[in-house]
C-alpha cells in the first residue's frame, strides 16, 4: 500500500508530488502519480502549445519549483539561459523558459519514475486503512489520495457548435485531444472563435504563419484584465472576506464574480490591434447562430449581425466547461460515502483540503476553500503547501513521543 497516490499528472499533481517528496520528506517509493497520458504534463503541454503563447499570463513566481524565485534562478543557469525571457509587467516568463524549467524539475526530482499511466474509474474506502482506486488495469491502494483533477477533458462548445459537430460539420476546439495546431494544413481563410487570451494568442500565431488569412471572431467586446482574477485574491485582501463567508452558495458567487472569463491582458490586445492595422488578421465582433457545411471542408457561419462568414478552418477557443471534474466514478464515491458537497456539486473540505479521512483535493475541486485562484498555478502552490504541512505536522508530532507513530495524526486534519 502506498502512502500517497496523486490522481492527475498535470501542473497541480506534478507540483504536489514534488513538494511532498522534495520538501516534506515523503519517500519516493511511497508515492505515485496516476494519469492516463503517456507523460506527466502532457495535457498542459498540448493545450498551451496549441495556442502558441509567447509568454505566460502568470508572473515570475508562479511555477512548479519549490522556492518562489526558482524559475528566475534557473534562467541564469547554462540550461536555462538559452530560454531566458521575461515580459512586463510582473516579469512574466517566456513559454519556452517555463517549459524548460518544468522539464528540468521532472528530471532533477525523477518525477517521471513516479508516473503510473492509467485513469481512475472507481474509488472505494478501505475502512481506516485508506482508499482503493480502480483503474482499467487493476486496483491501487493508498493511505492518502489526492484528487488533482483538472478541467482539460471538457472543452466548452457553444450550443450552435455542438449541434453542427453532431451533424458531422468540421468544427474543432483548440483544446480537443486530437487537435494539434502546429500540424494544421494550409487554409484559405481561418476563423478563430473566442474572446479571451487563448483565442487572441492563437489568432496571432496563425496570422504569423499565413498573414492576411485569419479572422478573430469575438462573441463579445474586448475585456482587458492583466490576470484572470484580481491579484488581491492571492492574499488576505480578498481572501479574508471569502474565508469568513459561511454560505457556500455565496462563496460560489464570489468566485464567479472574481473570474475575468474571456479576457486578455493589455499587451496581447495591443498585439492584436497592431496585427489588424497591418492587415495580418481581421478583428470582428459578432456571435454565431449556426454553421452550414458548403462542401470541400468549408463552413458558412451565420452571424447574429445578419451577415455570414466562410471558413475552411474553424477553431473554437472558448475555454472549458465549468462542471466539477471527475465524472461518474466520483459521483458514485460521493453517494456511497456521503462526501460533503455544496449546492454547486463541488467538495466541501477543511482548511487542510481534507474531504474525508485520507482523501484530499486540489485544483478546481479545492476552489470553495482556496477561492478563484485554486485552478491556477498559484492555486497549485497554495494547495501543495497545505498538503506538505499535513506531513510536516505528523513528523513533528511523532518526534514528541520519541519517534513512536501517533495513530490517526496524519490524515485527520
TrEMBL record:
InterPro entries: FAD/NAD-bd_sf. It comes from the Bacteria. One of its GO terms (molecular function) is monooxygenase activity. The keyword Secreted does not apply. The keyword Oxidoreductase applies. Keywords: Monooxygenase, Oxidoreductase. This is SidA/IucD/PvdA family monooxygenase. It comes from Chloracidobacterium sp. N.
Amino acid at each position: 500500500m502506498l502512502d500517497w497516490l496523486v490522481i492527475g499528472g498535470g501542473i497541480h499533481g506534478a507540483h504536489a508530488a514534488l513538494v511532498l517528496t522534495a520538501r516534506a520528506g515523503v519517500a519516493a517509493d511511497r508515492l505515485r502519480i496516476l494519469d492516463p497520458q503517456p507523460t506527466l504534463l502532457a495535457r498542459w503541454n498540448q493545450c498551451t502549445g496549441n495556442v502558441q503563447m509567447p509568454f505566460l499570463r502568470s508572473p515570475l513566481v508562479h511555477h512548479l519549483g519549490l522556492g518562489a524565485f526558482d524559475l528566475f534562478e534557473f534562467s541564469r543557469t547554462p540550461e536555462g539561459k538559452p530560454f531566458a525571457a521575461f515580459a512586463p509587467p510582473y516579469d512574466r516568463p517566456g513559454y519556452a523558459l517555463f517549459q524548460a524549467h518544468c522539464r528540468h524539475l521532472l528530471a532533477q526530482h525523477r518525477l517521471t519514475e513516479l508516473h503510473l499511466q492509467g485513469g481512475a474509474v472507481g474509488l472505494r474506502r478501505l475502512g481506516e486503512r485508506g482508499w482503493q482506486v480502480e483503474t482499467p488495469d487493476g486496483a491501487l491502494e493508498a493511505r492518502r489520495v489526492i484528487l488533482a483533477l483538472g478541467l482539460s477533458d471538457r472543452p466548452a462548445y457553444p450550443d450552435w457548435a455542438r449541434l453542427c459537430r453532431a451533424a458531422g460539420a468540421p468544427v474543432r476546439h483548440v483544446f480537443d485531444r486530437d487537435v494539434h495546431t502546429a500540424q494544421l494544413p494550409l487554409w484559405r481563410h481561418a476563423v478563430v472563435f473566442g474572446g479571451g487570451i487563448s483565442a487572441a494568442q492563437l489568432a496571432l500565431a496563425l496570422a504569423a504563419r499565413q498573414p492576411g488569412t485569419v479572422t478573430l471572431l469575438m462573441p463579445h467586446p474586448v475585456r482587458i484584465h492583466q490576470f484572470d482574477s484580481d491579484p488581491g485574491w492571492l492574499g488576505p485582501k480578498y481572501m479574508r472576506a471569502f474565508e469568513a463567508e459561511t454560505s457556500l452558495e455565496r462563496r460560489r458567487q464570489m468566485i464567479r464574480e472574481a473570474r475575468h472569463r474571456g479576457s486578455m491582458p493589455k499587451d496581447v490586445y495591443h498585439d492584436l490591434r497592431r496585427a489588424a492595422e497591418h492587415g495580418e488578421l481581421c478583428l470582428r465582433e459578432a456571435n454565431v447562430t449556426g454553421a452550414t457545411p458548403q462542401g470541400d471542408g468549408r463552413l458558412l457561419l451565420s452571424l447574429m449581425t445578419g451577415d455570414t462568414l466562410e471558413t475552411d478552418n474553424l477553431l473554437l477557443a472558448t475555454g472549458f466547461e465549468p462542471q466539477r471534474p471527475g465524472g461518474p466514478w466520483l459521483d458514485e464515491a460521493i453517494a456511497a460515502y456521503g462526501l460533503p458537497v455544496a449546492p454547486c456539486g463541488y467538495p466541501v473540505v477543511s482548511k487542510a483540503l481534507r474531504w474525508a479521512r485520507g482523501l484530499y483535493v486540489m485544483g478546481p475541486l479545492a476552489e470553495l476553500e482556496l477561492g478563484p485562484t485554486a485552478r491556477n498555478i498559484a492555486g497549485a502552490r497554495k494547495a501543495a503547501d497545505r498538503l506538505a504541512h499535513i506531513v510536516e505536522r505528523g513528523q513533528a508530532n511523532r518526534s514528541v513521543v520519541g519517534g513512536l507513530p501517533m495513530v490517526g495524526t496524519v490524515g485527520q486534519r
